[in-house]
Amino acid sequence: MTQTNDIEVIIVGNELLKGERVDSHLSYLGRAVLPLGARIARAHVTADSVDEIARVLSGRIGETRTVLVTGGLGPTPDDVTRRGVAAGLGLELEFHEASWNAIQDFFASRGRQATQANRQQAEFPAGSRVLANGEGTAPGFEIESGGTTVFVLPGPPEELRRMFSSHVAPALSERFDRDPLRVDTFRTIGVGESTLFDLVGETLGALSAYDVSSLPSRGGVDILLTEKSSLSDRSLLDTESDAVAEALAGAIGTKFYERGERSLAEVVGSMLAEREETIAIAESLTGGWIGKLLTDVPGASAYVLSDVVAYSNAAKTDLLGVSAETLEKFGAVSEETCTEMAHGARNRAHAAFGLATTGVAGPTGGPPKKPVGLTFLGVSWDGGCNIKRQLFTGTRDDIRRRACQGVLWMLLDHLRKQ
Amino acid sequence: MTQTNDIEVIIVGNELLKGERVDSHLSYLGRAVLPLGARIARAHVTADSVDEIARVLSGRIGETRTVLVTGGLGPTPDDVTRRGVAAGLGLELEFHEASWNAIQDFFASRGRQATQANRQQAEFPAGSRVLANGEGTAPGFEIESGGTTVFVLPGPPEELRRMFSSHVAPALSERFDRDPLRVDTFRTIGVGESTLFDLVGETLGALSAYDVSSLPSRGGVDILLTEKSSLSDRSLLDTESDAVAEALAGAIGTKFYERGERSLAEVVGSMLAEREETIAIAESLTGGWIGKLLTDVPGASAYVLSDVVAYSNAAKTDLLGVSAETLEKFGAVSEETCTEMAHGARNRAHAAFGLATTGVAGPTGGPPKKPVGLTFLGVSWDGGCNIKRQLFTGTRDDIRRRACQGVLWMLLDHLRKQ
User: Fold this and answer.
1) Count of CB atoms within 10 A of residue B323's CB?
2) Residues of B in contact with A185 (CB under 8 A)
């Protein structure tokens, strides 16, 4: 049997194996179990098949103490998780009258009627404890077998999350009797993973209280410190975490932009909010994505005044005041146009800062001598501006994402240095 | 041993189990193997641990013919996949001089120097065939054991994808000697999953050539037909697929918006491109997301003229011409303001159509009597407009996403009915 606080996850769904959908359950559950002092030790993705579910589950009974199964509890013919779990445990399904009544009530309260297809949602392996689903039709269940507790939860993310919080977390919390593990995140941008390890590897290698992992992504690299579960002297945690922060700030300056979980847009946004300053944006190749990232953050209306996506030259002139002469002489993808876009956005909105992007997102070529990936990023303020020329590589999506992150970092760098 | 064309995937990464990153490999691989007549039968996510990788892998040797392992080939201390695979197969690691030279050349060509940390990337289980990684530092490898072929590929998505195409796909294609399976996708919006099955369940239940699955998502529900691998009479494929398309069109009209893989933004975009018509957008609560979705599509500059994110009232007036009186009398979240935004965007950009969104995204409340989720969506054209009032539920992200999809569908509905 594995450690008490190791959890295994079985995610059921043909659509995940066929690449029709990206799984979001594992990342939710991985984070949700940390404060319980537990961890996801392993995960499996299986097909919507009674045999497959049964095979994977039965292999884990008696091996791991806690198994979470998600998905396949709906009313459609491919929802076979109830049958798969029953087969895996060698049990029969039993019809549960109270659940069927609850499902019918759920539909009635919405002025609709439960269908015969919904009736199978009230069947559970014999001996299950039914877990009510307040706002969905699919109840979950919990069942013990061979020293293993199996929780089975519905697949829709909102339902999974609510039911995990209300049913599973309290049950696990009782069982895992230890303090939550500490996880510290250090977020960086614009420095490659191996360069980063060359620069701060010595500090990271000297840590005794934490395990280190690094997460390269298109937006940058995160360094994660996870408290060792064997740690006895917890006073080391602060000292070592501070040492990492200091080493990063010394080595890469403002490219270490966050100690915590906030996105670059959140960090920039909260700096603007604190300073009571505002921003206006002018986007060309990024097409609204910078605005989207900034307004993902609740309360963004306090500092985002406007975002003008000026895809056509006419819009650059009419909405941002870029001069027709500049466009004619230097082209839309140029330092000069980027400068006028950044100033134009700021001036028209009476904002403290203007951001601008213009470039060639691809996949096919831009104007002559302007290759795919060529991008100008601009930050404008009262009395000056900073324009950077970049040649990004990758797909259309990569290039656009890098342009968004790049210009947000330029603003952050400017704000930190003021 | 499982079927020849069943593939298992082992994805290595603590960050996935801790919820620090969402996996994208499985969805890529699931789609990438379909044309080869293969399928991903099962997937496992394991920790960056020699023991764990070894345990999961050794359990699959002799059980399944093809295993793909991804991730953990980098230069950092937590990159232990080479050691884990070697341990799982009971083999030693051997240093491979030619790969070390290639890694050094890779760095030299970029004006940098390979570090000692990179040296471990040239070690492979004895007997491996090394798979070159043209544009990254981490080579992959292929090794046979107990009738199972194990391919090990690096984790960065671009590298995984390139190496799958250049090394793995050709090898599998030789082995799986059958025609690609057909997969038909039918995309819908604005109809719940169980209502959809009530409406077209009879048609779907009568299919003999396909397996049916449905994918509910925040954007809508997709119905997928996957050719049964046992199918002998392939002439049924067209007939049955057409019958499903007909049933959907009859039951839900333009809410069945795509037979294929295109997103709603792509469908709308290609209709505009065909008609040589243009669009201008005015966003408030969606903050640039509609622009982002439309400009995700290559070639969007042919029909997207501009997108004005007018978060402040002043921007609504200055950039879109919404009258101060309207804002004063009805508020920013109102049918009247939405109407003026849609017309204003269209008029200023001289576009054929204007789109507008305004609403309360939350999570905290909007103006009095304007609850979180209240949204107005507008489409404007020469001579008229259509404004819809909606009360969306869910998170800030859900509400904003639904508003984006809702207004794109309104335009599609208008275009289809013209």
Assistant:
1) 14
2) 20
Does B179 score more than 80 pLDDT? no
Q: Using CB atoms within 10 A of its CB, is residue B107 exposed (0-12), middle (13-18) or buried (19+)?
A: middle
CB-CB under 8 Å, B18 with A226: yes
Compute the mean pLDDT over every residue in chain B, rounded to the nearest whole number.
91
- Within 8 A of A39 by CB-CB distance, chain B residues are 17-18
Q: A361 to chain B: nearest residue by CA?
A: B298
Q: What angle do CA A346, A347, A349 make, to 5 degrees?
A: 70
Closest CA in chain B for residue A316:
B306
Of A76, A197, A315, the CB nearest to B76: A197
Contact B351, B343 (CB under 8 A): no
* B266 contacts A269 by C-beta, under 8 angstroms: no
B22 chain-A contacts, CB cut-off 8 A: 22-24, 26-27
Summarize pLDDT for A222-279 with one digit per residue, the tens. Answer: 998 988 877 778 889 999 999 999 999 999 999 999 999 899 999 999 999 999 999 9
Task: List the single residue in B with minimal CA-CA distance to A136.
Answer: B194
Rounded to two decimals, the pTM is 0.80
SS3 of residue A381 by DSSP = strand
Task: Tell me which residue of B65, B77, B62, B68 sits closest to B45, measured CA to CA.
Answer: B68
Q: Does B295 contact A301 at a Cβ distance shorter than 8 Å?
A: no
Q: Which residues of chain B are within 8 Å of residue A54 when distances are taken between CB atoms? A: none
Q: Which helix (H) or strand (E) holds B97?
A: helix B97-109
Contact B92, B126 (CB under 8 A): yes
Length of chain A: 418
